[in-house]
Amino acid sequence: MTTSHGAASDDDSAEPRLQEQFDATIARDQRIEPRDWMPEGYRRTLIRQIAQHAHSEIIGMQPEGEWITRAPSLRRKAILFAKVQDEAGHGLYLYSAAETLGADRADLTERLIEGRQKYSSIFNYPTPTFADVGVIGWFVDGAAICNQVPLCRSSYGPYARSMVRICKEESFHQRQGYELLLTMMRGTDAQREMVQDAVNRWWWPSLMMFGPPDKDSPNSATSMAWKIKRHSNDELRQRFVDMTVPQAAKLGVTLPDPELRWNEERGRHDFGTPDWSELKRVISGEGPCNEERVARRRAAHEDGAWVREAATAHAAKQAARSGHTRVSQKLQEGTAA
Ligand code: FAQ
């Protein structure tokens, strides 16, 4: 057996009892905390999902970040700057949550830049116009909210708690995107066309953010049994469609799906099928911007090496100094050995 820190325990007979306690905690809808025993599969699944989520936030800074220097006004620049900075913060909370499970942050980054760990497919699409910034806020942050609000009730404490603040910020992000699009829709014909074009390009990739259909989602059953995920991929996709359709009508844009219509009987919208082969291609590294996104992340990591070295040297100096201070304090108090 392993302890909550992944180290081997000398008491294998304790495992069934620990498993029972774990199962009971999950059944009572209580939280698993870092100090608690947990099955290795639970730990691995969480590290996988949280790391992918953290990587998505960090890589997700790039598509909109490209517009910071080109935003059309100081106000738009300040808003965009704040949003992209929030995404960096989300990535950092999430890496910290992964660390509570025994993962090493430097190792996770290596896995990302070597293509051994995934990040969300959505960030592999280009942002050719400023309307893309608005549509990312509206669709991508909107989808992130649908997916992540239930994760505030995820069974792993540090992940669930990090989601609370992240979701508040995503909500601001979603509104700033929608407000930007409302402004553009009140502008010129060219601006309205730009918004519609961005909506056409981002709609299907946004639906793919929720993952493959339930029948093809290998991780869903266990993740839901463990209450890491609270709803299935298809359920969350449906919620996103139901939330977005009235917003599109208010904005005056058309969602590019001829099969989209209200189903009176179900009390929900029917909609078309995303091109799942496209999702597979993008996840396997063949999306329009995969190479460029990872190359940029790798360059930023390498360029930042001196900062990490300086921070490590500074921390060592501080530790040596405080060790020195503690020894001299003890000498003064006459307690040093
Ligand atoms: N892209 O069995 P399932 C954001 C992978 S943050 C890439 O259904 P699961 C904020 C999946 O990992 C956006 N890979 O998997 C923001 C698995 O691969 P593996 C990120 C995908 O984990 C806004 C395989 O396919 N959000 O937007 C995708 O049960 C604006 C089979 O799939 C999160 O990470 C995909 N779309 O469900 C930032 C939320 N879909 O590991 C900047 C947390 C599936 O077995 C600007 N994550 N895969 O090799 C989750 O809720 C889940 O992990 C899912 C996938 C729903 C994404």
Automatic annotation (TrEMBL):
<dbReference type="InterPro" id="IPR011881">
    <property type="entry name" value="PaaA"/>
</dbReference>
<feature type="compositionally biased region" description="Low complexity">
    <location>
        <begin position="311"/>
        <end position="320"/>
    </location>
</feature>
<dbReference type="InterPro" id="IPR012347">
    <property type="entry name" value="Ferritin-like"/>
</dbReference>
<dbReference type="GO" id="GO:0010124">
    <property type="term" value="P:phenylacetate catabolic process"/>
</dbReference>
<dbReference type="InterPro" id="IPR009078">
    <property type="entry name" value="Ferritin-like_SF"/>
</dbReference>
<protein>
    <submittedName>
        <fullName>1,2-phenylacetyl-CoA epoxidase subunit A</fullName>
    </submittedName>
</protein>
<feature type="compositionally biased region" description="Polar residues">
    <location>
        <begin position="325"/>
        <end position="337"/>
    </location>
</feature>
<feature type="region of interest" description="Disordered">
    <location>
        <begin position="311"/>
        <end position="337"/>
    </location>
</feature>
<dbReference type="InterPro" id="IPR007814">
    <property type="entry name" value="PaaA_PaaC"/>
</dbReference>
<dbReference type="GO" id="GO:0005829">
    <property type="term" value="C:cytosol"/>
</dbReference>
<dbReference type="Pfam" id="PF05138">
    <property type="entry name" value="PaaA_PaaC"/>
</dbReference>
<dbReference type="InterPro" id="IPR052703">
    <property type="entry name" value="Aromatic_CoA_ox/epox"/>
</dbReference>
<dbReference type="GO" id="GO:0097266">
    <property type="term" value="F:phenylacetyl-CoA 1,2-epoxidase activity"/>
</dbReference>
